[in-house]
Amino acid sequence: GAVVSQHPSWVICKSGTSVKIECRSLDFQATTMFWYRQFPKQSLMLMATSNEGSKATYEQGVEKDKFLINHASLTLSTLTVTSAHPEDSSFYICSASGQSNTEAFFGQGTRLTVV
Amino acid sequence: ELKVEQNPLFLSMQEGKNYTIYCNYSTTSDRLYWYRQDPGKSLESLFVLLSNGAVKQEGRLMASLDTKARLSTLHITAAVHDLSATYFCAVVPITGNQFYFGTGTSLTVIP
Q: Mutate which of B97, B100, B105, B108 to disrupt the A interface (most A C-beta within 10 Å)?
């Protein structure tokens, strides 16, 4: 299957700072990228869907000013957690799908800890 | 509100036994996916089911899809310890392209 690389794998940051997570499709063009958040022992919650070159569509209850998503190219999407707080600590996972849209490929995930 | 429910949520079974995990969803869809997640890791794709009546098998796992009943099953045959993980189904509504995940089933296979 196709490869999606997420970076960093884990990050610890201070409360009030911002953190950027990158999601890259390495061997295909990702027309759509998805961002998920997963709390311990829970399912994946879709945060937003981003299509290359357009604004992300956020799920209900997700603050778009806090979780900034940029999908500037067909191989890169970024999620920036602004003014992070301890309750933002979570496992963030991206996925990407190409033109066919029948399958999505997942990044390795980023464990964010805000102290 | 779209719901994707899995049953059971937790499952402990002995090696060699069979069991079925169920995934019910509340939207019209013809695309269903099964994933495996090990602790601290991301998702590993197991099956992609793209039509009513689709059945796929890989090793000791077999998945099926009934779009009319809005139900998918993941059947485990002769479980082994290596299958211990959390299993998620995900459904894509016919009107969109977002993946919505089930509640997850945490499977522990006991030697």
A: B97
